[in-house]
TrEMBL record:
Residues 92-183 form the Methyltransferase small domain. Belongs to the protein N5-glutamine methyltransferase family. PrmC subfamily. This is Release factor glutamine methyltransferase. S-adenosyl-L-methionine binds at residues 113-117, 136, 163, 178. It comes from Noviherbaspirillum denitrificans. The lineage of its organism: Bacteria, Pseudomonadati, Pseudomonadota, Betaproteobacteria, Burkholderiales. Keywords: Methyltransferase, S-adenosyl-L-methionine, Transferase.
Amino acid sequence: MQPGITLGSLLRKPPLDALEARILLSHALQLSRVQLITQSERILSQNEADAVNALFERRLQGEPIAYILGEREFFGLALHTTPDVLIPRSETELLVELALDRMPGQARILDMGTGSGAIAIAIAHTNPEASVTALDASEGALAVARRNAERHNTRVRFLHSDWYSALGTEQFDIIVSNPPYIVAGDPHLSQGDLRFEPVDALTDHGDGLSAIRAIIDGTPKHLVPGGWLLMEHGYDQASAVRNLLLRQGFRDVQSWQDLAGIERVTGGIR
């Protein structure tokens, strides 16, 4: 980046997507969107130019904005985000909304494969009376999740667990999960942001349904009769997940569409 460059010139002809450029400039220079406009004639110092250039280069290499900034908003909450966890996505907010709508007063909630803690923290923040447990097999992910829970002053119990293994005989009123569901070898795994995200949180290295089967198979022991199981899944997996739930004896089995019209969450009552 040339010395003496102005903020306005970067905004007019950014080396990447204009919106992303504004986001990264705001982050690098600690300026609001309004300040970017009002200070458009400001000449960047060499240190500022170097900082901006470093962030632009990271993005040009494909690194996700959420990892560059170190956070992503989910359900109105800013969540710390690192390569140890999946980037929280807006379509997963549907899972939170469905759980909140079905929650008894002082419900016991289990979030399986919590990652950044997005789902568990959003539920606990919205309904402080709920007793929320979140588990993950990754210690790195749990460290991020605990940091996020502290940031938003939410009460969530975090457990290091390979699915139900650390729960003993505990039972819950609602179980929610956004498990790894991408089929092994799917070309999307080597494209876009997914290239940088933890692969074990994206794919089960099989048919995309093995984690979902494990969750369903554990419900007789860990989900109370009359309790809801709600799971996010791939765009083409809704029918298969409904069939798995029906075979386990669930009732009121159904799928819900996200804002893009894709069947994104499937669940039922034990």
